[in-house]
Structure formats: C-alpha cells, structure tokens
Amino acid sequence: MRRRKLLFLAIGVVACLVVIGLVFGCHHREKPASIQAGLAQGVDTVPMLIMQVQQCSKLYTAEYRVHKIITHDDALRFKGQLLSKSFDVKVPLADRKIAIPMDAKIKAFIDFSEFSEKNIERSGDKITIVLPDPQVVMTSSKIDQRHVKQYVGLTRAHFSDEELAGYQQQGREAILQSIPGMGIEETARANAAKVLVPMLKQLGYDEQNITIAFREDLDFGHIIKNAAL
Fold first, then answer.
1. Cβ neighbours for 73, distance < 8 A, ≥ 6 positions apart
2. Residues 51-96: tens digit of each pLDDT
C-alpha cells in the first residue's frame, strides 16, 4: 500500500501588485462638449455619466503575479497484522518526491457594460457610485520546467504525465483559493476610484461629496474565475 500526501507550500507566494496604468482596458472617447453646457443650464448629468462610464467597457484595476511551489511526497509502505499485532513498515528505496515551481498571472477588472442608474445613488449634492461586481481571473500559468526537482526511489516508477498534470491543476486551484487574502477588494475599489472621481468632478461634483463603493453583500470568494490557462 502507499500513502500520498500533497502539500501546497506558500513558499515564495508573491502578491506582486502591478497597478496597470490605471485605465488599462478603459477606452474613453472625448468628453462631449455638451456636458459643460448642460451643467450650466442645470441639466441632469446622470445620463451623461452613464454614457461615459459605459464607454470604459472593462476597467482592469490590478495585476498580480504569484509564484508558488507545488510539492508532492509519497512513500510505499507495507502494512498488515501479524500475531494480533499491526505493523506499518516503510519500504526501503521506495520514496517519491517532486517540487514544481509555478508562476501565475491574475488580473482584476470591472465590467461597466451594464452600468446604469441602479448603480448611482444621489442625495442633494452628494453622489455614490456602487460599482458592478469586480471579476478576478487567472489569465496565465506556467511551470518552470528547468527547475522542477524530483527524487524517485529505485523501486518506484517515475511520475507519469497524468500525475504531473493533476498536481499542476491542484496548484492552480490553490493559487485561486489564496486570492481573497491578497487585498484585491481594496485595490479594485481604489483604482476604480482613480478613474471615476475625476470624471465626476468634471461633471460638477465636489470630491468630498463623491463615494465609490461595492455592494455590501459582495463575496469575493464567488467572483474568482479560472480562465485562459
């Protein structure tokens, strides 16, 4: 019999936050000249705001680069019972160990294509923008093949391609599970605010009267996607 033990070490897990040019993926056209005229005449600027925000389409707020080492260790053991006594003996030269370095790229973005009046709350001269739910995707993952290390005992077979693929997939899943602890909620909100606050100021709102928020019941554990691997 053999026992398998799969360990995911957070060794070298690097949440290297790369603030992507703020509006990477946000494509604005020039602000219509009618906005300033509309403000002067007391025209409701919400439709103008919605139009401008929708033009952003996908606003990429951050990029994370994560390095993780996936390890697997199993040993062949001989178990049984003799004279009413149980025994569990490790078979000599039957160990197998492997360490797989993996690099992954994770991006956070907000999709404004469905942005509408339901995302806007106004009270007098104060305005609150409730952001659409952010999305987090793993856009790529790569195994550093040159630095994969393994040891296989003389009595054991080498790791199969199927086993290696399974360990790699479990490594990706472990990285995704670690995302909620990376502080991506604060990053997504802060970088979205850097885009939206200047836009609202141009529409006549004072910065101290502008609030950028996510919906209160947002669960970041449910917005993470394993995509484009």
1. 5, 7, 95, 96, 97, 98
2. 888 777 778 888 889 999 999 888 776 677 767 777 666 777 788 9
CA 55 – CA 112 distance, rounded (Å): 8
What angle, rounded to 10 degrees, do the helices at 46-54 and 184-202 form? 130
Q: How many CA atoms lie within 13 A of 203 on its CB side?
A: 23
Going by their DSSP bridges, the two strands 134-143 and 224-225 should be labelled as parallel
Taking a C-beta distance cutoff of 8 angstroms, is the pair 70, 10 a contact?
Answer: no
Cα–Cα distance measured from residue 50 to residue 115, given in angstroms and rounded to the nearest whole number: 7
Alpha carbons 21 and 14: distance in angstroms, whole number: 20
pTM: 0.64
CA–CA gap between residue 64 and residue 105 (Å, rounded): 6
**Closest CA relative to residue 69, chosen from 143, 147, 14, 11:** 11
Q: Are 165 and 97 in contact (CB under 8 A)?
A: no
Coil, strand, or helix at residue 69? Answer: strand
Distance CA 43, CA 78 (A): 82
